[in-house]
Specification:
The structure holds three protein chains of three kinds. Chain A is α/β, with parallel strands linked by helices. Chain A folds into two domains: 244 residues, Rossmann fold, CATH 3.40.50.2300; 145 residues, Response regulator (Rossmann fold). Chain A is 41% helix and 19% strand. Chain A is built from 13 helices and 16 strands. In chain A, a hairpin with a 5-residue loop joins strand 2 and strand 3. Chain B has a single domain, classed as ABC transporter involved in vitamin B12 uptake, BtuC (Orthogonal Bundle). Chain B has 16 helices and two strands. Chain B has a two-stranded antiparallel sheet. Chain C is mainly alpha-helical. Chain C has one domain: ABC transporter involved in vitamin B12 uptake, BtuC, CATH 1.10.3470. The chains are: A alpha/beta, B mainly alpha, C mainly alpha. Chains A and B meet through helix 1, helix 2, helix 4, helix 5 and helix 7 of A and helix 3, helix 7, helix 13 and helix 14 of B.
Chain lengths: 446, 323, 288
Amino acid sequence: MKRSLFNLFALLAVLSLALAACGGAAPAPTAAPAATTAATEAPAAPTEAPAVAVEKTVTVGFTASQTGSQEVSSKRQVNGFNLWMNQVNEAGGLTLSDGTIVKFAAQSYDDESNKERVQELYTRLITEDKADFLISPYSSGLTAAAAVIAEQNGKLMITTGAADDDTYKQGYTGVFQLYTPGSLYLTSTVDMIKTLDPAAKIAIVNESDKFSTAVVGGLKPYAVAQGFEVVLEEAYASDTADFGPIINKIKDSGATVVLGGGHYPDGSTFARQLYERKIGIQFIGILVAPPDSKFSELGDAALGVTGPSQWEGKATHTEAEAKGLGIEWFGPSGADFAAAFEAAYGDKPTYHAAGGYTAGLLLQKAILNADSVDSEAVKAALDAMNIFTFYGGIKFDTSAEAHGLQIGHSMVVIQWQKNDAGELVREVVWPADVATKSPIFPITAP
Amino acid sequence: MRNWQKYIGIIIPLLVVAGLMLYPTVTGKAAARETAFTILKAIALASSLNILLGYTGYVSFGHIVFFGFGGYVGFYLLSSQGASLWIAILAGGLSSGILAFLLGKAILRLRGAYFALATIGVNEAMKAFINNFDLFGGPTGITLNFKTYLAYGGASKALEMAFFIVGGLACLAIIMSYVIRTSKFGLGLLAIRENEDAAEVMGVIAPDAKTWAYVLSAIIPGMIGVLFFFKNGNVEPHDAFPLHASIELLVMVMLGGQGTVLGPILGAFAYQGMRGYLVTSDFFKDIQLSVSGALLLIIVLFIPAGAVGWLRKRSELLRRVLA
Amino acid sequence: MQQLNLLLASLPDGILLGFVYGVAAMGLTLIWGVMNVINLSHGPIISLGMFGAYIVFIKMGINPYLGLLIIAPLGLLLGVLIYVVAVHRVINAPHLSSLLATFSVNMIIIGLGTAAFTTSPYNVDFNMGSVTLGSTTLLGTRLIAALAAIIATGSLYLFLYRTRPGKYIRAVANNRAAAELMGIPSSRILALSFGLGTMLAAISGALIATFFPFSILSGGGYELKSFVIGVLGGLGNPIGALVGGLALGALEAIVPAFMETSWVPVIEFGLFILALLVRPNGLFGAKE
């Protein structure tokens, strides 16, 4: 009796599995509720709009890492993008010269920070959800997989949070990079060190993954060319938690400067342990982690740590700067963006958020320049793009070898310092003309 | 009529695969094709694993190592040496087979959980090694130039072709699985599963038989690896050797019923379909992993023979129809 | 000479860490020894221990070491619950069943943990100062963690050898059928053993949290380390696990002195396979 009850239960379970499986194999019906959010917006709006205006809803598709190792940065990026979209839609959309009003809708899925399903999800975004334009996932690895799908379907993809140079050297024509390429991430930090201590001995310690290896690939020859001695080069596995042996090695090498890191989890761990072990390093430059607001959770360990940032609220780019360079200015000021972001999410924007927002802004500008939402026209507009926004310059390489590589944007260097109230704050310390504070150097306080 | 009935055990599984291959072609939906690709890939991998797990009873927790290793070798030839996709796929299968042969000689001596642990070690060691191996790009991995797809009629055609190849490989895995099960060699394997020592007494040369089962179960994953990386356009060490994917394969075989031909197919279908549904459903997406886990637990606890095993126990007719 | 300096600097640290690894592995190996189950939910339970320390310290303001007194019994209860729900039915089934049953528990915990804590890294910013001895710096948190690990091991031994339930556990591990004939309630003893195993995992997690950042996914790495340690020390042998933990801790300190740190996992897992092949019962002479 008891046994058959179990079996019945089990049978039910199998049935529900099978049902779920059918749902997965034939996604059309299940995807419908999600898609309707985009569809219902379109018919609702025209009743309010003047009779002549045709309203078009453009769907922007992307995957986000709601879980997994890229979650922190990915969420900020998505928040930035959504802020832009809401602002544009609330302002009544974009108006093209023929009177068409363009509004935006977003469709996204969770990629779990995992490449396994990225292609499946992007294909679904393109073919089922009819995405007109794509934004990249966060991180170079996921973007590389997504780019193949975008390219083969002839969809444009604006990448943000994907700095690795490699993806743009594969012969793609519809992938456009917003970030300064990885190989240039730490070169400005080297310039800065040169002004602080030209005789510094550099230890390069990086995560052994795609992005960090690309950064180091650009960093090392540059540092050597600038006359620095690189006394240690060390790569560590992505899930490293104990940096003790590495730190001992750094100490042993006689380095005065540590450059490297990788992503948020390992970078913050590394910084914390460098602090705990007090080995007398004078300057620390770490990728990705320091520009994140969460980094201040490290407390005193964060003090003095620097990192390259794609954008900083304190040194945001201005219209005057654009004028000086003779480049067209577009979009809100940095202060307006930061205020809107804080109002929406209760958190100061980081460069990941600014990247997400600017990806939208760039799409907006390209559509306006093309005066069309047609992929080919927008692509031509992106190819010809040369603008300045609060995020900085945006211009793409259009050569066949490196099409879509960002060449107009430059990075700043931030450092965690204490303000008068003793709170940890991010200050911009390089380049000198936009710096908000002079760098603390050397950082080893007694 | 007789003949038709005799081969029904292989006809049903092949029909399932044919259905999966036809569905996206008929409907013309690229998203359905992607979903079907994921499922077919899982079917091929799970059916391969079943040759070892289901027939000999050896639990491999690191079967994905063959997918990653073969895939890396083939993808390297494809992207850096200008080999054609076909050569690359063959090379992937071959290198995985050789790896399995060498490994098999060493670790198949271990039994039960010790073998399972060793396979985990092999996978992790291989992943860490590739991460340091500069020829395969080290941590950066290998990226395929988009122009490579031109040789196959452009990216769109190339991906469609990859879909049909994965279907072909799934069929190959199923036929292999069926032939082994109905062969004398397969009987020897089943004897090993029931009692290895007794099997040796009865004249099964267990070390050889196990090794060959291991090799046969490794070839298709190596080929699938090449194909999957070709389709993805790039590979990095951590996506080539995901330990959790190995465990998911075990889950699929278990769900459907280990040691049967149809079981891994149903298991792969159900598991991938379910995950694909949960991850994109608004309601479940936050707790999808927990829902999958709970369902799995129910199956493991209450129908350990898997769906096919359970059905086979129900009736004589089903036992004849379901291999 | 340079290598020697590095070794002297890194080795003490690695060994301290090894004690904590050892406690985690002891939990795994205890369960294996008593019921021949490899607990694949080991990793997420370590993660839960980490979050336990976080909640106790950050949210409730209790010293994390005192917090162990809360975390340990909760770990025990969780283990008993997992045993009753997921393991008991498959205890006599082939290995695959218990592996998958504990793996589904793994999925459930990670799924719920992700919903509750996301997968972002957390920090228990707890500083106990440091001691400098010659070329090496010993962190206070690690010294205390090692001490706690030794206490946990000692208590486990006292429990197993000096108390009645402990003796029952050893009897069941030795021969379950015979133990049942002697009137030992084997189901309850199995549940207790599983509980003890998860308790050790949770304790090690809480200790790790005091010096490393963590997320709900972090436990997976320590689970793999526990496998390696379990095999080095001999599966089913708790003292072996502690020794294995020390060996692994030392290895992680030694390897970087001679080659790039990214080679550590290659050596680690290579050694693991070798140990399985050459001495499947452990490098340290464990008995069958």
